[in-house]
Amino acid sequence: MATNIEVSKTGNENNGTLLKRFTKKMQEAGVLPRVRSIRYNERALSTFKVKKARLKSISKKAEIEKLIKLGKQVETKRRRR
Fold first, then answer.
1. Model-wide pTM > 0.90
2. Three-class DSSP category at 63
């Protein structure tokens, strides 16, 4: 959603008042709050990446279970969150 804000100099208006009018229009349009709200948002992961990560965690859990059964790794207690 792009917002174009255009302010042009009228008569013998100085740069200070032109800047003031521009900032006023920016506030009215709500551009800055919208940009700040999406500043640190991350894109959602693709389905392929989610699937790949899930398969990796499943295989890792299976490997750990195998090592515990063979006695090569000590079973650890899960922590409560």
1. no
2. helix
